[in-house]
Amino acid sequence: MAWWERTRNGIGGLRRHLRGRSVTDEGEDTGAERQRPSRLTDAAVALLLAVADAVALAGVALLMFVVGMSHSEPPGGTPAKSENVSPLQLAVVWFIPCALAVSCYVHARLRMPITSVVQGLFCVIGTPLAIGETNMLLSFT
């Protein structure tokens, strides 16, 4: 019983010593608290990434259009030749939604809520585009 009390008191002392910081912050200076970036920095990063994401998703949509048109059947002609879909093509298709999901998670962990929401919204937009492009590629086989 004394061992249990000593252990419980030791944990309570450790909690008071860390003052709400996570255990992973122990290696840092004891006086330095993890500060989140300012709202201005968060908004600037969100704006920059929103422009980059919009360009990337527009490129994916344009690529879908070009690939779809190149494989469409000409009027009165024979259908286009069937191809196999390589895993590399599928990896390229799913790279942007995966990168957006990882970015959303990383910015949430960095305590940048505006950037995390923007990245999450672009991930929600990019996922149906990737699903559509995957369906389009698989329909050519």
Jot down its keywords.
single chain; about 140 residues; mainly alpha; about 0% strand
Can you walk me through this structure?
- With 141 residues, the chain is mainly α.
- Helices cover 70% and strands 0% of the residues.
- Helix 2 (39-70) packs parallel to helix 4 and helix 3 (87-109) runs antiparallel to helix 4.
- The longest helix is centred in the middle third of the chain and has 32 residues, at 39-70.
Concise structural overview:
With 141 residues, this protein is mostly helical. It is built from four helices and no strands.
Q: What's the gyration radius in Å?
A: 25 Å
Structural class: mainly alpha
Percent strand equals under 5%
Low-confidence residue ranges = none
**H/E element string?**
HHHH
Tell me the major beta sheet. Answer: none
Distance between the termini: 70 Å
Principal-axes shape call: elongated
Calculate the mean pLDDT score and round it: 80
> Helix amount, in percent?
over 70%
Number of strands: 0
Number of helices: 4
Any chance you could write out the topology, listing elements then pairs?
Elements: H1 2-18, H2 39-70, H3 87-109, H4 113-139
